[in-house]
Amino acid sequence: MLAGCQRTDSGLPVAKFSPAPIMIRFLNRFAKIPTESPRRSLRPWLQSQDGDEVKRMFSRLLLGKPGIGPLPVWLLGMVLWAMADSALAQQADGAFAPPTVAARSAVLMNPATGEILFAKEPHLRLPPASTTKVLTALVALERLDLNSRVLVSPQAAGAPPSRIGLHPGDAALTQDLLYGLLLKSGNDAAETLAEAAGGSVPGFADLMNAKAWQIGARNSHFMNPHGLPDDDHYSTAYDLALIFRQAITHPLFSDMIATRSAALRIESGPDGYGNARLVP
Description:
The chain is of the alpha+beta class and 280 residues long. Helices cover 45% and strands 12% of the residues. It has 11 helices and 8 strands. Strands 5-6-7-8 form a 4-stranded antiparallel sheet, with helices on one face. A hairpin with a 5-residue loop joins strand 1 (2-7) and strand 2.
C-alpha cells in the first residue's frame, strides 16, 4: 500500500510502501484468517478447513505436522512477505502510471481551484456536439426568469432530433425547457430557449460567444445552442471544462444534472393557454 511520497537528491519522487497492510489483506482475502488472534485460537478453525488447499497450507505453516514443527514467527513473516511481494510490485509499477484515455482530447480539472490534474491535447479544436448545451443552459439561467412562459416558434419546433416533442404554439416554463434541454438533450428546447433569451438563434450565439470569452474559453466559437454540425462551431476540452465549472456554480444547474428523470409540463392550444400535457 502506498503510504507516501518523498524526493531523492535528484528530485525524483520515490514511493514509500508499508508491507504490513498487504500481508494482512492477503490473509483476509485468500485465507480468511483472523489475523489479530493468537496462534492457539487458530487451531480449531484451521483443522476444520480440510477441503481448502490454501487453508491446509496455512495449517501446516502455523500448526505443524508430525515430525515437522510450526514455523517460527520470523520465518512465517518471510513466507507471507514473499507471497505479498508480487502484489506489492504491481502496486509500485502502477503507482504513477497515467490513465489510458481513448479520446482525442481530455481535461481533468479541480472545480474548486481550476487546477489541471490531467490533460491530453487540451486546446485541440473539435466539434463539441451536445456538450454545447451546458453553455446554452448557463446563458439561459442568467438571462431568463425560470417561471416565465416561453412560446414555441415553428422554427424551434422543427429542430432536428433529438427533441422533446414541442409543437408550434406550445408554451412551457423556462425551468421545464431547461430540464428538457439537459435531461432529454432536446434540440427543440435549445432553440426555444435561444429565441427567448437572444431574440433569434444567431443572436443567442452572440451571447454564447460573449459568455465563453468572459469565462476564459478563448479557443471556442459557437453558432447554435444545440451543437449540430457547423464548420464554425467548435470548442476544446479545456474550454468546456471552464464552461462546466462556471455552470455548476448555479444551484439549479447542479440539481438538474443530478436528476435522473423529470416530467415536463407543456401547454398547447391556439393561444398557448389550452390543455397541458406531461412529457416524461
